[in-house]
Amino acid sequence: ASYWAPLIQSCCTARDLPRARHIHAQIMLSDLKNNRMLANLLVEMYGKLGSPVRARAVFDTLNPPNIFSWNILVAAYAHNGHVEEAKRVFDLTPHKTVVSWTTILQAYTRHGNLEQAKILFDSMPDRNAFSWTIMMAAYSERGDLLNSKILFDKMPRRNVVAWTAIVKVYAENEHIPEAKEMYDTMPHRDMVSYNVMLSAYAGTGNLAQTEDLFEKMPEYDIVSFNTMLGAYVHEERFARAKSLFDRMLYRNVVSWNTLLRGFVQAGEIEQAACAYERMPERTGVTFTILIGAYALLGYIKESEKIFEQMPYLDTVSCNAMLVGFAQNSRLEQALTLFHSTTMLERNTASWNTILAALASHGNLEATRNHFKTMPEKD
RNA sequence: CCCAAGUCCGCUGAA
Predict the structure, then answer these.
(1) Exposed/middle/buried for A11, CB within 10 Å: 0-12, 13-18, 19+?
(2) ipTM entry
(3) What's the pLDDT score for residue A14?
């Protein structure tokens, strides 16, 4: 089991579904095929890799599933946006723990509505630090600083995560002085807290202040450097960004994406293309940046080429492609992509993009029809 | 021994 576990985890980080299935098959051939812990890991793995059906199939082989199995299955459905199904499984879960409750709470805050989450939160038999922090973050995301702070004040035993969350809450609602005050007040800080405060400053555009904090930080990790790199890019200090990137001892795909973004913003499209080729790893973000960059310059063919190179499609990249088509007067292609099965999901941004494209094309009737069919409007 | 919370990069729209 200790041999297989890390292999399963690595599939999750690499987003490698084929290898995941291969490992799964290998386990089934071994004498560990009835090992429940490994099965739980497989359920988790399939959930994270976007395959709740396979997650469910593994779950169904368990006799009996334990509480971990149930919780993992709920998370698997929630992670893929199947909140209803997650709730169904949650309701069937015997001997629910506080983890079961926080998992479904998270499902609601992420995909459902906050009202339902609040009802759930209030009716939970137990609440721990996780539950409180999830609710705080949910309010903050909606811009409800007040309720977020009320929860923080009511929270019984605030840990470093809760303190960091409240710093972030103030920061994302543009209350930087209050964020700093909380940061200074918190009884104990860790790597994440430093990075949150750094990111708060980076978002203000005050480079001097950001650099000052960066220099005073007791320790650094790759996120700290990426944040600083992003601050330079954001402020269009491309030379500094490039020089920091070159000096970084460790880089990950976020560092590369940030650099790529820097080249694009600087108008250095060939440098961007060069970085794209040299990157050791790419994510959906990578493709989205380049698709948008080429489209904006009118190189829609290049955008399409990049789009076709994507190993798996995500909604945001598809949206970028939609925008690209729209920008380049290719309404037909935008509509084709939008309605095609290659686009697995459509979010509000997808619908809005098409709506705007139709409207600017002057097609009032089609715009109206599209508007009427939109599942949700903002 | 396996499950849930806070940090860095991407899409539409508002400013």
Answers:
(1) buried
(2) 0.89
(3) 77
